[in-house]
Amino acid sequence: xxxxxxxxxxxxxxxxxxxxxxxxxxxxxxxxxxxxxxxxxxxxxxxxxxxxxxxxxxxxxxxxxxxxxxxxxxxxxxxxxxxxxxxxxxxxxxxxxxxxxxxxxxxxxxxxxxxxxxxxxxxxxxxxxxxxxxxxxxxxxxxxxxxxxxxxxxxxxxxxxxxxxxxxxxxxxxxxxxxxxxxxxxxxxxxxxxxxxxxxxxxxxxxxxxxxxxxxxxxxxxxxxxxxxxxxxxxxxxxxxxxxxxxxxxxxxxxxxxxxxxxxxxxxxxxxxxxxxxxxxxxxxxxxxxxxxxxxxxxxxxxxxxxxxxxxxxxxxxxxxxxxxxxxxxxxxxxxxxxxxxxxxxxxxxxxxxxxxxxxxxxxxxxxxxxxxxxxxxxxxxxxxxxxxxxxxxxxxxx
Length: 399
Ligand SMILES: Cc1ncc(COP(=O)(O)O)c(C=O)c1O
Hints:
Radius of gyration: 22 Å
Strand content: 15-25%
Bound molecules: pyridoxal-5'-phosphate
Distance between the termini: 56 Å
């Protein structure tokens, strides 16, 4: 901003400058939110301005709940200000306590949600094919204190829901799915959030479907929805009745309005992600030491991530070498998930977190890197990324 001859730096200015700098450097991040045209969002803002209803179950909130339930093919959905609070409330809603069996290969919020509820996480290893919780390991981790299983549909690939439900039924456990990666995913034509007792979604800016920040709990009956709604609004049942020690986790009208608008574009966005995924697979196939996930049979994917594994013995470069190399080209992959949640100070003293207990997760966390994927990612960039891998591959041949 200019005042007379002086150039005064104001906060908005520096933000603009930073954004401009980022653009000039042409940095490619692992993701970039796909936003609808701004002019389409303005009428929504005007409506909010006119109504003066900014939050507390406004009309956009109500409409988004209806539209999302339809899109996801689920009965009941409760919107939240973010996915982490939705996870915390989901555990409260089912009165989960004691110990919960979960995976160390997830975003840290999965386990933090347990911690915030005073629940002891019990980690079990993952399976190597899709990096979800290894269902063969669950039963041996059950103790008299176990009350639930909290698996994650990692990268949107469905867990072995049948086996998990079988175990839960035998031992009388609840199942809460962290489905934060799995927006719109279907298994045999059925929305993935129909499985388990509850499922939790995130609509964070980095996700396939975004409401800036946001999240949701999917439940299967009216009574549970009511309890979740009390819990996310301080426990208010009416103006003068507080029936549970709830929290403030409500989604506001701006978030809900963006969500409604995003829904118009979501199918196209997922289709583009699918094309990018195929493009990467084509570009990286036959490179010794590089592997990636294929589509699962009977699954409609949302293609939120493109993780690859780097086998150092075959590729002769570590995952971290590649991570740094990409950065030199202004390409920022993400070591997702690294480190394992079980390796963070809060959790590493747990018995189930000890090194050597989860060999598959411990290997994969060293090998995995997620490559950039978002609807507007240009083919030219994907080619460039694949060429970096190919270059190393051909250099290795002459070693
Ligand atoms: C697997 C997983 N769980 C939980 C969360 C937390 O969601 P939010 O960022 O909306 O709080 C995220 C993402 O951010 C996630 O990827």
